[in-house]
Amino acid sequence: MKRGLRVIDGDGHLQEPMDMWTNYMPQEFKHRAPNVIGHTGKIIHRYGPCEVYPEGKVIASSDDTFSHMEERYGDAYRSWWGMPERLRDMDQEGVDVAIGFPTNCQLLGSNVWAKDPDLHAAMITAYNNWAVDYCKDSGGRVKAIAHATSRSVETGVQEIYRMAATSEVVGIFHPSMEVETSWGDDAYEPIWQTLEETGTPVCWHGSASHPLARSFDPIRHKYGPLSHALMHPMGAMLALGGMVYGGVLERRPNLKAGFYESNAGWLPFWLHRLDDHTDGRQGVFLKAKKKEDALDSGKGISMLPSEYFRRQCFIACDADEGALAQVVEYLDGDNIIFNTDYPHPDAPFPGAVDAFMDQPISEGHKRKILWDNSVKLYGDKVSVG
After folding, report:
1. Residue 119 · residue 153 · CB < 8 Å
2. Are strands 97-101 and 44-47 parallel, antiparallel or unpaired?
3. Is residue 157 domain-resident?
4. Is pTM beyond 0.85 here?
5. Does a structural domain hold residue 34?
6. What is the average pLDDT value for the chain, to the nearest integer?
7. How many domains does the chain have?
8. Which domain holds residue 112?
9. Please, are residues 59 and 68 in contact by the beta-carbon 8 Å criterion?
10. Which CATH number fits the domain that encloses residue 246?
11. Would the pLDDT of 188 be above 60?
């Protein structure tokens, strides 16, 4: 609690230990597990040659990126993000409940990790089991976003049911998608149906939100931070548009969807632009075509994109966003959740909650963003902390 308001950190991160695959991979797949040989800043794993990474993988980063981690995170860093230390940091910040996304396993649900569906499902089972065990020691204060494979939709559906039955998991990372496919494709429908049935939100996170967003990554060598600045909001914009025009939100009105680590400032612009292309001046390009041929309109949507968003979608804001007050006014404080991004090197920690409290928005809107909206998104599982 901070200044009399309860706080849910709707988007932080869990830090997978280096021995996670050794301890949690199903026995028959242990010899095919990712080969973790080191780390960078106790955040990013380094991989030796293995089936998933035949030539190994080391993500290049500046020495300055992680040089301040021990100073900022102290005992949590030294303990490799142990739960007691994490809870102390939450108390220091005033965070009552924290939601943890994967770090090294963010792309685990995508098809880039394993070509064999059975290996893919085994890796997801391993990560999910570790995440559940990690959160069990928090007294209900730390929750996880789990994965579900879409290489085998039937297997993915079974994993959603398994995770939804736990008290530790409050959402499912979005299913993987190729550039040439759509989340509105019939093949994905059992996944959306199961998420809606179990009341489990689907979650899109940063540049992992859409394969096209990651196409900006190569320009980092020429334009530095431009790729990172583009990938995260672009991924969320593509995912939101895909869920609208693919007809998923139309067919599944009780499905909740969250968009994370992309800031919130782009949202009013994007919703207005989508609305205008749906039923406005710029919709003239679509109206010139047969209705059933226009942007998946054959899937059938009966509302404006902004109306779908207000009905069933949520976006995570950063504490120190310069345009946050305008987004809050646009949404009347609804559909926005707070996040800290703890414990990543670019997180506004310590002081994330204080930075948000200093935003020029009303107490009522702060209450919605810090607590009420996350409860609407994640359900009662987050209100027991």
Report:
1. no
2. unpaired
3. yes
4. yes
5. no
6. 90
7. 1
8. 8-21+82-384
9. no
10. 3.20.20.140
11. yes
